[in-house]
Specification:
The structure is a homodimer of 194-residue chains.
Chain A (H helix, E strand, L loop, with lengths): L12 E2 L2 E2 H13 L5 E12 L2 E6 L2 E3 L2 E2 L7 E5 L14 H23 L4 E13 H4 L12 E10 L3 H14 L1 H7 L4 E6 L2
Antiparallel strand pairs in A: 1-2, 3-4, 3-5, 4-7, 5-6, 8-9
Helix pairs in contact in A: 2-4
């Protein structure tokens, strides 16, 4: 999916992205939309209490099983003492904020690059509000998830404020994690024999 | 919010959770529902291209600013080469699967414990499907997020299959991350001066 570099010169990079590869990817997906189909995966194992660990490595995309990763990424979920854990790791709703922060940032960088905008810096600060009455099953009228998530983004780029606002609105609308949160996405839970 | 242990004996643990503390937490929130209000937070900084890093430490909950963490958790988002990165870390949509796996697992363990069910093991396998035509802005009718996420859970517990199916349906409905994905949750993106 990425274009082979035929020159021995360093590739033209904008915002840390190889422009030639970006254009090549977009053209390849335009020509063959099936290349846009991706399946991401994770496995997870319960350790004890609120502690569990995920392993992430393989995925399918661009028409093939990816083989670029020689080892798996591993992440540990935990809970703070107030939620009956001992801070074995960040907790799942905190990992969700990390995923959202990263996705909105990467989507902003990618589409800035496509627009020829150079970004100097991006920092975000997220907060999400949850009422645990839902999670604990104490009030079934209270949703168990986040009520609202706010992202404050500090961004410095070589464009006008109008271009920046347009870019951020576009990025918010095209960020896969943001869209997964903003839109109702079906999750199925199937029990398989232990 | 956790009850002080007045005995010098080890606390009664079920599934790695302190039952006395669990009952104490539920009773405290019942008495004073404001204790159920939590605000989780993350900050994130763009590094380059598809690489960025989050820092997670403080949160508000149970009526106070939590001070249990002496250092921050840090996580790096990256992208595989086919998505113009060099596997600097798992990517944001993969972290979302990790968050979902952990949350459904922890919610299952918590509510099993409340029901007096002992769990011997839980393993999950997740897959989520995305069509990158949405993310790349090549087809505005294609959502940029996950179309569907499937969780296969292998669980062994000392209860009947009927009790297990009832527990899993309840856990799916009360998992904060699962609920945040299944339900449309508002995300606001505010630009602040760099």
């Amino acid at each position: 999916m990425t274009q082979a570099m035929t020159s021995t010169e360093a590739p033209a990079m904008t915002n840390g992205l190889n422009m030639e590869a970006l254009v090549g990817t977009v053209e390849a997906v335009k020509q063959n939309p099936m290349l846009g189909q991706f399946e991401f995966r994770a496995t997870n194992k319960w350790i004890d209490g609120g502690e569990n660990r995920s392993r992430i490595k393989e995925f399918y995309g661009a028409g093939t099983e990816d083989e670029s990763r020689t080892s798996a990424f591993e992440f540990t979920n935990g809970e703070p003492p107030v939620l009956l854990g001992s801070n074995e790791g960040a907790n799942p709703v905190e990992y969700l904020l990390h995923a959202l922060a990263g996705c909105v940032t990467t989507t902003t960088v990618l589409h800035a690059t496509a627009r020829g905008i150079t970004i100097n810096s991006i920092s975000t600060r997220l907060r999400g509000n949850i009422d645990l009455l839902g999670f604990l099953g104490l009030d079934e009228s209270v949703p168990s998830g986040y009520r609202q998530i706010t992202i404050e983004m500090s961004i410095d780029a070589d464009c006008s404020d109008e271009q920046l606002d347009d870019l951020l609105e576009y990025a918010k609308g095209h960020s896969p994690v943001c869209n997964t949160i903003c839109r109702p996405v079906p999750v199925s839970l199937e029990r398989v024999r232990a």
